[in-house]
């Protein structure tokens, strides 16, 4: 099949969604499908933030990338870009002759995807990666007015699609409550199970020594944003260290909340126990997981959390906030869910996992089994079925 993919978020912008979109395309291309991306032009600054050379991503011979002039817009990643729609870019897509169009955004290039699907009479698949009801929380004023306008626009957009997916049941139910009427279902994002995988006990010890991780290392990875509630993990650490003195917290990533988090650690006398690892490559992040003993996430804004699934596939038990998609993606056989915002409950559950070796091993095995469900092959097989089902439809 020929699949045209539109997304406002793409390489080199850092993020689990961006990674999963590229990984899915690479896997589809490897299976013989032809993929054509339509994404924003990135700047030298975007590549610098990611710490990678300024060149196009290589996803294999069957995947091509079309870039469009764009400008920077404020965002937590500091890499987000907006492509002003012309509603004429369907002419370029016409030469590709796609069987289906897949949009990962309802903004900017999402409008181009909708216009292109209508002009070329090609079915449109829409994926929403965000919790729509949470958008208004980021507005400094007029939240009710903004919410009403945003909810209506988002739902109208996705009701123009033939099929809509979300990475978790909470996302789908959120949209349905706001008026989504078209067929929809949960389709997970994939993780790179070749990179994020378990290691032997000997390899784990060697990694701990190289990274100077303790025998009770808790790790979090992702964007440092206020809504991620990383401060809860830092404040829970002293409570954990009361019974496990060697416990430490490793934080991988970057973001606008980093200075505040460093200050919280300093004020708590935890500078030696809280390690800020910076932005890591996939391989370095995998090694950090493999050298750790538990993954913790206190965020109450997750629609899936790719870092959680990556850590699980490295065999890490998880302790996360009992909120939104984390209710779906931290099953009882793989970890515990804690009261959102409660450092006491987080510390209690983290301590339980780290102190009880038998419990920790049971949860580690459960996490690995659960994580393997999200391999690129498994997820892409699902997409192949969805694409094939809609490819014969005429808009």
UniProtKB/TrEMBL annotation:
Location of the Glycosyl transferase family domain: 214-365
Domain Glycosyltransferase subfamily 4-like N-terminal, residue spans: 15-194
GO molecular function: glycosyltransferase activity
SUPFAM superfamilies: UDP-Glycosyltransferase/glycogen phosphorylase
Domain of life: Bacteria
Coiled coil (UniProt feature): none
Record-given protein name: Glycosyltransferase subfamily 4-like N-terminal domain-containing protein
Organism: Candidatus Kaiserbacteria bacterium RIFCSPHIGHO2_01_FULL_54_36b
